[in-house]
């Protein structure tokens, strides 16, 4: 399935069945995460069959149910860590969608003390992604229009429009879509708005834009 179709089909899922991630799905997912770690220098980890992390009042308040698997987004502290976690985390999320798995980005409603991921010296946990087989496939989020999130000098090229449309399919914190794309010739700049996790959102949005607009059409500014 093409990436754009995966972006359209993937929605946040908060309730999961007891079906385990195993067999070929696990054999495909784990190396993909390691490949992303190799590309990015991150220390992302897939944690399976571990229910304690989401066994909290906050998880129940956030309507997260039966989450037994998650991906910890961990990396070396630095100015670009959150954006990098967003970019590569979303790459994994869409790959998981292609495998028939469901996901949900989770910022607060889990227990760091109960979780079993590893954070080495000089590293930081940004957030986690719940993953598994959902009891449902989720629902599309409300979206801004293209004109709400762009500033373009001259005529908007088709590749740019398609990239922004893909960016508007991206999950963002509280579904606020606090980002703006700027186009000048073939130079593209995207700016995150103010708010919690806006740099994570920026990485997610850049992955969506980049993979659909195609890098040969533009340069990041």
Offer a concise description of the structure.
33% of the residues lie in helices and 19% in strands. With 221 residues, it is an alpha/beta fold.
What keywords describe this structure?
globular, NADH Oxidase, alpha/beta, 4-stranded mixed sheet, 4-stranded antiparallel sheet, 221 residues
Description:
The mean pLDDT is 94. It is globular and about 55 Å long. Helix 2 runs antiparallel to helix 4 (81-98) and helix 4 (81-98) packs across helix 6. Helix 5 (158-167) links the parallel strand 5 (150-152) and strand 6 (179-184). The chain has 221 residues and is α/β, with parallel strands linked by helices. The two termini are 30 Å apart. It folds into 2 domains: 3-132, NADH Oxidase (3-Layer(aba) Sandwich); 146-220, NADH Oxidase. Helix content is 33%, strand content 19%. Strands 1-2-4-3 form a 4-stranded antiparallel beta sheet. The protein has 6 helices and 8 strands; from the N terminus they run H-H-E-H-E-H-E-E-E-H-E-E-H-E.
Percent strand equals 15-25%
Question: Could you spell the SSE succession in H and E letters?
Answer: HHEHEHEEEHEEHE
CATH superfamily assignment of the largest domain? NADH Oxidase
User: CATH first level of the largest domain: which class?
Assistant: Alpha Beta
Task: Tell me, rounded to a whole number, the average pLDDT.
Answer: 94
Biggest sheet strand order reads 1-2-4-3
- Count of runs of 4 or more consecutive helical residues: 6
> How many discrete domains?
2
Structural class: alpha/beta
Q: What's the story with the biggest beta sheet? A: 4 strands, antiparallel
- Strand element count: 8
Uncertain residue ranges: none
Rg over C-alpha atoms, rounded to the nearest angstrom: 17 Å
Range of helix content? 25-40%
What is the name of the CATH topology of the largest domain?
A: NADH Oxidase
- Large-scale geometry: globular
What gap, in angstroms, lies between the N and C termini? 30 Å
Please state the second-level CATH architecture of the largest domain: 3-Layer(aba) Sandwich
